[in-house]
Amino acid sequence: MILSAQSTDKQVNKITRQLFLSVYEPADVIAMGQEKLEKAVSSVNYYKMKAKHIFQTAELLIEQGGEVPESTEDLLKLPWVGEKTAKVIQYVLYHQPVIAVDTHVHRVANRLGIVQTTTPLQTSKQIEKAIPKQWKTIAHHALILFGRYYCKAQKPKCEECKLQSRCEFFLKSTKVEISCGS
Ligand code: SF4
Questions:
Q1: How far is the CA of 143 from the centre of ligand 1 (A)?
Q2: Which of 2, 34, 87, 123 is disulfide-compatible with 106, CB 3.0–4.6 A?
Q3: Whole-angstrom Cα distance, residue 143 to residue 148?
């Protein structure tokens, strides 16, 4: 997660494919050393700062027993961990039914009227109540992919979208067009 800030998935995946061959847990990061870690991640933006943050996080986790915390409260106490990162960890590592909200989830959830919010943090709180527990794991990826490739920020593919009749954004925009045209 630290590596991904201001970097593309492609850049990060290229690094982690190699890095994860030897690094599985905080102790492996410490054994590698900060300098070697810097070299290993040097193809992402801000790699020196990111390597430092990864190293410091590994040190902190070891101090706390070597395990990544599971609760939201404990995760948010870690440096560089916000609401979204905490939920990604809970979802990926601990298989908890939570929805991590990125820009795509925030936009799509608002367009469809699942939530009515102005910030991703507000969406993160509201969406947990709006989506039933059994749908959360699938909803997380479905909303991200739908937003990334279909319901894009600019020029969403509304003409071919099967959710038109349920989409508040679409219904509002067509209403405006009709009233302007009449
Ligand atoms: S109708 Fe358009 S804005 Fe609404 S969900 Fe579909 S693509 Fe997104």
A1: 12
A2: 123
A3: 8
Question: Does residue 181 surpass a pLDDT of 60?
Answer: no
Residue 145 structure tokens: 């992919």
* Ligand 1 atom 2: residue of nearest CA: 158
Rounded distance between C-alpha atoms, residue 171 and residue 159, angstroms: 12
CATH class for the domain made up of 9-67: mainly alpha
Range(s) within the chain of domains with CATH label 1.10.1670.10: 103-181
What tens digit of pLDDT does each residue of 85-137 get?
Answer: 899 999 989 999 999 999 999 999 999 999 999 999 999 999 999 999 999 88
Helices then strands, each counted (H, E), the chain: 10, 0
